[in-house]
Amino acid sequence: GNRNDVIALAQTGTGKTAAFGLPLLQRIDTNSKETQAIVLSPTRELCLQITDDLKDFGKYIPHLHIAAVYGGASIETQIHQLRHGVQIIVATPGRLIDLMHRGKARLDKVTNVVLDEADEMLNMGFQESITEILTGVPEDRNTLLFSATMSRDVERVAKGYLHDYKEIVVGSRNEGAESVNHIYYMVNARDKYLALKRLVDFYPKIYAIVFCRTKVETQEIADKLIKDGYNAESLHGDLSQQQRDLTMQKFRSHLTQILVATDVAARGLDVNDLTHVINYGLPDDIENYTHRSGRTGRAGKKGTSISIIHSREKYKVRNIEREIGKEFVDGTLPSPEEICKKQLFKSMDDILKTDVDEDQIAPYMKDITRQFEYIDKEDIIKKIVTSTFGRFLNYYKNAPEIEKPSSRSSKEENRSMRGEGRSTRSRGPRKPESGYKRLFVNLGKADGFYPGEVMQFINKNMHGHQAVGHIDLLSKQSYIEVPERDAQKVMHALDGTTYKGRKVRCNDAEEGGHGRNSGRSTGGRGNKEGRSERRNRRQYDDNMYPSTRKFKKDDWKELMKGAPAKLKGEEPDFSEEGWARRRPKK
């Protein structure tokens, strides 16, 4: 057409590659071996997928050469490809920058640039690389930006590097697929894995991706599922490229039923017939949720997005509902009886649908018939059921009950969303949620330690995202709940670090020191600290915040003048006119 720059907002699986690939191929001059177009993608897997699609689209175009360049593969092989001339380079930003610096990727003749999954590239920290690439191609290029969501970072890139662009929206901005049902199951943190198993058992024909927040959690959940007999694999950045390729190939071929993955690792996996997406905890960004849920319910099929959450994540559900314009169903976990019935019917259905090769089993039928001639039909059925179905019967016979936490009021949810704790005047220690450990940190509001800063500080020192529950912020200290399994790692990561010049102390709130009275404020009649703790607190206050308890009556005048005032060793004036006797008016 008129070669406008374009921003196209569309969910994964809506045919974006064909949308930009077919016009791109039409514009290529195959008589020239100069690079005329580049396509940037966030992951190696997506890079290879786009390359394969473009080669399929252009298989009848003579002298067309397309190269995929990405990290994790031999750069010498890729340089060899580029040296022989390619019209289209499909690349990950990091590897393309490397080739540009080596002078092997020449982009001075590029007329078309495509940014695919732009929001994900920016989330992965490729902002500087994208900027360098875009400044390294001619100004009169045609730029197409494809994204599932329109984040502020995407808008910033669009305004900086796209010219007079048109915006095309498939569906609504940041909206999930219409054919997806959204369900959440609220459980205590300790019961999340048990809940996952029940849901997988309840859907015998499930074909799903289970999304986890971290690489460590991903591997842990996959290992547990495999140990418990499920057909599962893990996919995350710590796996070698060969392992990731094999895992994705097995999943695409339905040889793996459940893939446990991180958001980034699963980005290049394009599967159209997923029955479920399971969120093992909700992501912090609504955009990530729409990415995840958009992987099911494709090609006219219905899909289900399941979220296993604890009560502290309820506010995230409400935020997502507002953003995508769809309501979540508050689900109730299936009972052991319901699960066993589902599995039994599935087992019987498998038996009935089994194809029998008469010729193959004919030599053995006489002996088999003789073995069963003294057993009636009903007993045979019972034995078949027990042998094929015994694992579920044994497990669910004594299965522990999974209690649903009581929902908090909307006021409490909003307070949790803001990261505010309960009133600092609470008389008794606050009991952490089941499965969580309460930690003490010697930083508070007086140090500028607010919810946003708390999360940034923890994530920075944990070198990644850390799940956090309730946060109680006091003036000079804080109490933070983290999953029990992470408590030691968090304490080790924070203790002894510095925050705005202050040395940080972090310990178990239940063990001595400040933690023993974690639910009480530092003042008020309800405070019954031990003598040593009060002494420690006074010493801490005097060291960290210069005492203002002992002023001379004219010291404030000296302070206002900027003159050095003696704040210690002087007695206040308790005369009738003295300042120390006066109380502020109520």
Strand content: 5-15%
How many strands appear in the DSSP assignment?
20
Biggest sheet record: 7 strands, parallel
The overall number of domains is 5
Can you tell me the residue ranges where pLDDT is under 50 for at least 5 consecutive residues? 409-428, 515-533, 539-551, 562-570, 576-582
Helix fraction bin: 25-40%
Radius of gyration: 31 Å
Which architecture of the largest domain per CATH? 3-Layer(aba) Sandwich
Shape: globular
CATH topology of the largest domain: Rossmann fold
Chain-averaged pLDDT: 80
What is the H level of CATH, i.e. the homologous superfamily of the largest domain? P-loop containing nucleotide triphosphate hydrolases
The end-to-end distance, rounded to whole angstroms, is 74 Å
CATH first level of the largest domain: Alpha Beta
Domain Helicase C-terminal: 198-340
Protein name: DEAD/DEAH box helicase
Region (Disordered): 402-437, 505-586
Family: Belongs to the DEAD box helicase family.
